[in-house]
Amino acid sequence: MTAREKCSEKFIGLILALALFCLASTVSAATYYVSTTGSDGNDGLTPATAWQTITHAVATVPAGTAATPNVISAAAGTYDNTTNGETFPITFANAHVHLSGAGSASTFINAQDLADALHINATGVTISGFTFQNASDADAIVLTEGGFTITN
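^ thats the sequence. predicted structure below, dont judge the formating
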């Protein structure tokens, strides 16, 4: 084998190793599920094994990244203390987590006049697809970090 062939083999090997490294370092966001009929004893990894409370989900789901936020998908229903055991305020402490409801006409966070509905203590939090009801004071959503998004 000539020196040129050996150099070409090493170069191809280096390119393949670099490609494998790039593929291995590509991380995709994880999706977790919540349903008022779920159980916080479940793993939350499928709709059939959904957690019951958003409170449990936001405490359990790890931080994502700006490029790959982790997602909590909440099924339609009313999330409150009486119906499914929510604890208020629901507190986001992990960055880059997206909470997505099934739609504001069918997915409700009802604080039942107990407290604030949400505390957002992390950056990159996105909340969409919910209607908030019955928070006990004027600041139903308390924000201590920037970089959040709330949409209908």
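The chain is about 20% helix and 25% strand.
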